Backbone:
C-alpha cells in the first residue's frame, strides 16, 4: 500500500526501481528503503524469531531492533528499514542469525 | 546478628566459597554484597576458562576447576544450564619469543596431564577457519578450555548455597571490621553490626580496601579492563582466540555474539570502570588483523570491569599472619572466574582447618614478604 493522496503533502511521481525478492521480480520506487518497497508489494514478514521461528515484521524502523534483518546481495543482517533500495538488488529472507563465510 | 563465617562479596569467588563451606556442613554462613550476586568483575568478565598457563600453580588451579565446570550442572543441581561451551582455546604465537615460550608452556602443561599441543599456522586455520593465519607464526590449542555463562555459573553457586542455608545480605555495604587482640570480632555494615570471628575478603576490586579495614596491607590494585559484544550470527568459531603479545581475546558465545577484549597498558590503578571510544577503535583494529570477518559485525554494547592485580598474577588465597580470622580470596589478576571452583574448595579447607588439595605456599600472602623470587605469570591479556 502506498499513500498516493494526502490533504497537505504532495507525492510526486518517483522513478520505478527493479529488484528481486526471493528470486522473483518486484518494483519499488526511487527513495524507498528496502523494507518500504517490500511493504508496497505486500510483503510484511521480513524475518523470523530465532527460537520459535515466528514471522517478524517492520518494528522500530530506525535501524535499532534487528526485526528487519534480511540477506541483500548475499550479505546477511542488512537492516532493510534504513537501507535505500537500489536497482537490481537481490533480497531474500534470512534463516537464523545470519550466516557469514 | 552474628555469623560463624562472614564472606564479603557475592561474586563467583564469594558464592563458591560459601557453597563449599556449606556442603561440608558449616552452619551460619553469611555473605554480604554492596550490590547483588555477580555485580562486580564476575558479571563483567569474558568468562573464558583455560588450562593453558605458564606457571604450574595456575595450570593446576585451572585444570581442577575445569573438571568441576564439566559437572557443575549436576553437582550444584542447577535447574538451568551454566552453558559450558568446551571447544578449546587457540592461543596465537605472533613473535619468535612467544613461539619459543609456548613450546615450554606446552611441555609444562603436558607434564601435568593437560592435553594442549603446538599447532602450525595451517592447523590453526583448520581449527578457526576465518583466522588470518598469515598474522601468526604458530599457535597452541587445548580442547579442554572453553567458556561459561558467568551469570548462570554464579547463580548456580548462589542457589546451591542458599538451599544449604547460607544467608545472603544485599544490598549491604561493609564499612568496617573490628579487630581486638589480633582477632576479628565483628563486621560493621551500613545496616548493622555482625559479630563474627571469621571474615573472608572476596571483595574483588575492593579487596585492598576491605583488608585495610582489618588493618592489613595487601599488594593488589584494581585496573580497568574494557570489553564489548557484537550482534549474534550463526556459529563460525568454536574456540576462544587469544594473543598475549597482540593483546586480544575473542570468543563466540553460544547465543552467537562475539565477546572480545584487550588490556590497556596505560590503565590507572583505580576503580574507574567507564568505557570509551579509544577501546572501540583499538579493539576493532586488533580483531580485524586476526579475524577479519568478525570486523564486519556491529558492536551492540561495550562495558568495563576491574581486574584485581597481584604482583605475580596469581591469586592471593589463605590466612593473614597478623589478624586471626581474616582470610583473603583476591588478586585474581584477570582469571578469577575460571579458578572459582578451586578458590571455593581451597578456602573452605583453609577455614575449616582441613589438609589442602594443593600446597598453598605459592598462593599465600606471605610469598610477597619473604624476599623470595616469585614466578610471574606472563600468559595474560
Ligand atoms: C573485562 C574482564 C574480562 C575478564 N575475563 C575473564 C576471563 O575470561 N576468565 C576469567 O577467569 N576471569 C576473567 N576476568 C576476571 C574475573 O572477572 C575476576 O577475576 C572474577 O570475576 C573475580 O570474582 P570475585 O568474586 O573475586 O570478585 P567480584 O566479582 O568483583 O566480586 C566482588 C564483590 O564484592 C562486592 N563488594 C566490594 N566491596 C564491598 C563492600 N565494601 N561491602 C560489600 N560488598 C562489597 C562487590 O559488590 C562484588 O559483587 C575478567 C575480568 C574483566 C573485568
Residues:
Amino acid at each position: 500500500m502506498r499513500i498516493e493522496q494526502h490533504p497537505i503533502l504532495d507525492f510526486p511521481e518517483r522513478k520505478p526501481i527493479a529488484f528481486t525478492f526471493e528470486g522473483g521480480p518486484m518494483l519499488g520506487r526511487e527513495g524507498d528503503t528496502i523494507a518500504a518497497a517490500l511493504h508496497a508489494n505486500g510483503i510484511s514478514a521480513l524475518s523470523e524469531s530465532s527460537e520459535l521461528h515466528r514471522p517478524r515484521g517492520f518494528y522500530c524502523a530506525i535501524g535499532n531492533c534487528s526485526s528487519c534483518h534480511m540477506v541483500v546481495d548475499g550479505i546477511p543482517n542488512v537492516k532493510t528499514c534504513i537501507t535505500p533500495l537500489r536497482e537490481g538488488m537481490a533480497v531474500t529472507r534470512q534463516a537464523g542469525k545470519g550466516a557469514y563465510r | 546478628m552474628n555469623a560463624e563465617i562472614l564472606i564479603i562479596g557475592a561474586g563467583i569467588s564469594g558464592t563458591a566459597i560459601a557453597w563449599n563451606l556449606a556442603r561440608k556442613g558449616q552452619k551460619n554462613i553469611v555473605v554480604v554484597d554492596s550490590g547483588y550476586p555477580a555485580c562486580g568483575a564476575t558479571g563483567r568478565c569474558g568468562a573464558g576458562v583455560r588450562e593453558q598457563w605458564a606457571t604450574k600453580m595456575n595450570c593446576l588451579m585451572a585444570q581442577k576447576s575445569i573438571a568441576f565446570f564439566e559437572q557443575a550442572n549436576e553437582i550444584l543441581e542447577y535447574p538451568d544450564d551454566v552453558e559450558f561451551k568446551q571447544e578449546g582455546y587457540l592461543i596465537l604465537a605472533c613473535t619468535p619469543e612467544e613461539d619459543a615460550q609456548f613450546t615450554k608452556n606446552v611441555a609444562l602443561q603436558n607434564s601435568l596431564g593437560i592435553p594442549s599441543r603446538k599447532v602450525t599456522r595451517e592447523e590453526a586455520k583448520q581449527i578457526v577457519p576465518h583466522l588470518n593465519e598469515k598474522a601468526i607464526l604458530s599457535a597452541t590449542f587445548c580442547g579442554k578450555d572453553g567458556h561459561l555463562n558467568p551469570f548462570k555459573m554464579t547463580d548456580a553457586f548462589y542457589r546451591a548455597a542458599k538451599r544449604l542455608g547460607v544467608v545472603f545480605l544485599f544490598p549491604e555495604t561493609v564499612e568496617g571490621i573490628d579487630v581486638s587482640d589480633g582477632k576479628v570480632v565483628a563486621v560493621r555494615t551500613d545496616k548493622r553490626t555482625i559479630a563474627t570471628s571469621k571474615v573472608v575478603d572476596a571483595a574483588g576490586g575492593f579487596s585492598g580496601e576491605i583488608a585495610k579495614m582489618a588493618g592489613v596491607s595487601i599488594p593488589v590494585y584494581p585496573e580497568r579492563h574494557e570489553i564489548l559484544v557484537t550482534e549474534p550470527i550463526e556459529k563460525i568459531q568454536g574456540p576462544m582466540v587469544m594473543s598475549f603479545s597482540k593483546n586480544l581475546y575473542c570468543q563466540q558465545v553460544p547465543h552467537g555474539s562475539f565477546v572480545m577484549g584487550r588490556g590497556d597498558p596505560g590503565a590507572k590503578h583505580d576503580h574507574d570502570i567507564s568505557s570509551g571510544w579509544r577501546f572501540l577503535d583499538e579493539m576493532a583494529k586488533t580483531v580485524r588483523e586476526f579475524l577479519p570477518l568478525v570486523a564486519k559485525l556491529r558492536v551492540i554494547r561495550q562495558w568495563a570491569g576491574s581486574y584485581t592485580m597481584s604482583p605475580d598474577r596469581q591469586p592471593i588465597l589463605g590466612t593473614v599472619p597478623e589478624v586471626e580470622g581474616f582470610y583473603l580470596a583476591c588478586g585474581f589478576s584477570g582469571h578469577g572466574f575460571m579458578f572459582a571452583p578451586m578458590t571455593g574448595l581451597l578456602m573452605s579447607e583453609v577455614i575449616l582447618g582441613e589438609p589442602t588439595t594443593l600446597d598453598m605456599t605459592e598462593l599465600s600472602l606471605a610469598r610477597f614478604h619473604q624476599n623470595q623470587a616469585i614466578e610471574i605469570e606472563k600468559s595474560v591479556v
